[in-house]
Design brief:
The complex is a heterodimer of chains A (111) and B (112).
Chain A (H helix, E strand, L loop, with lengths): L2 E4 L4 E4 L4 E3 L1 E4 L5 E7 L5 E7 L5 E4 L2 E4 L9 E3 L8 E8 L11 E6 L1
Parallel strand pairs in A: 2-11
Antiparallel strand pairs in A: 1-4, 3-9, 5-6, 5-10, 7-8, 8-9, 10-11
Chain B lengths: L4 E3 L2 E4 L5 E6 L6 E8 L3 E9 L2 E5 L6 E5 L5 E5 L8 E8 L7 E2 L3 E5 L1
Parallel strand pairs in B: 2-11
Antiparallel strand pairs in B: 1-3, 3-8, 4-5, 4-9, 5-6, 7-8, 9-10, 9-11
Classes of the chains: A mainly beta (111), B mainly beta (112).
Chain lengths: 111, 112
């Protein structure tokens, strides 16, 4: 079945630091890939997505590139802010069933 | 455009009781999925409905059930509550199956 491996958290960074959260997946076929973010006390929000190989999704300064050869979709941001503190979830969607989420990576950004 | 609305936001129940959670999807969306989120297990898929039909079901016991109405609103029911059912229950709606999912804020269920 589909599965996702995300880097363990929490990830603690200082403001303006560079962020990378690794995500690799196992899925049949050619899934669409999503990153969702969950702020404290909230549900999940779609952060960005990519629907085919080599596509780059981007939003709010975050980027992730669909790498079919390495089955990866790493999330990056050049300069994090305190307001980026949240839990980030990687999720492939093969279209055959509901989303399979990674375990989530908690990001803590310190001023 | 109103987002996905889940009610209630918070709920406290006693072991052995049953509970019903409600989800109103975004207007026009016909697919609703439910997830359970716990610190230990993360986000786990419960079930997915489209046009009043359950399309997929996760690996949860039969105590967990759901349904979808003709207006696409969905409910999930948990009977004979256990302490381990304490979780954040998230509902997501999408226009059709396999299109972008929009999540509600969730219902925080505490079983005591």
């Amino acid at each position: 079945g589909d599965s996702v491996t995300q880097m363990e958290g929490p990830v603690t960074l200082s403001e303006e630091a560079f962020l990378t959260i690794n995500c690799t997946y196992t899925a049949t076929g050619y899934p669409s890939l999503f990153w969702y973010v969950q702020y404290p006390g909230e549900g999940l929000q779609l952060l960005l997505k990519a629907t085919k190989a080599d596509d780059k999704g981007s939003n709010k300064g975050f980027e992730a590139t669909y790498r079919k050869e390495t089955t990866s979709f790493h999330l990056e941001k050049g300069s994090v802010q305190v307001s980026d503190s949240a839990v980030y979830f990687c999720a492939p969607d093969t279209g055959r069933r509901a989303l399979t989420f990674g375990s989530g990576t908690r990001l803590q950004v310190q001023p | 455009k109103a987002g996905v609305t889940q009610t209630p936001r918070y709920l406290i129940k006693t072991r052995g009781q049953q509970v019903t959670l409600s989800c109103s999807p975004i207007s026009g969306h016909r697919s609703v999925s439910w997830y359970q989120q716990t610190p230990g297990q993360g986000l786990q898929f419960l079930f997915e409905y489209f046009s009043e039909t359950q399309r997929n079901k996760g690996n949860f016991p039969g105590r967990f059930s759901g349904r979808q109405f003709s207006n696409s609103r969905s409910e999930m029911n948990v009977s004979t509550l256990e302490l381990g059912d304490s979780a954040l229950y998230l509902c997501a709606s999408s226009l059709y199956v396999n299109t972008e999912a929009f999540f509600g804020q969730g219902t925080r269920l505490t079983v005591v």
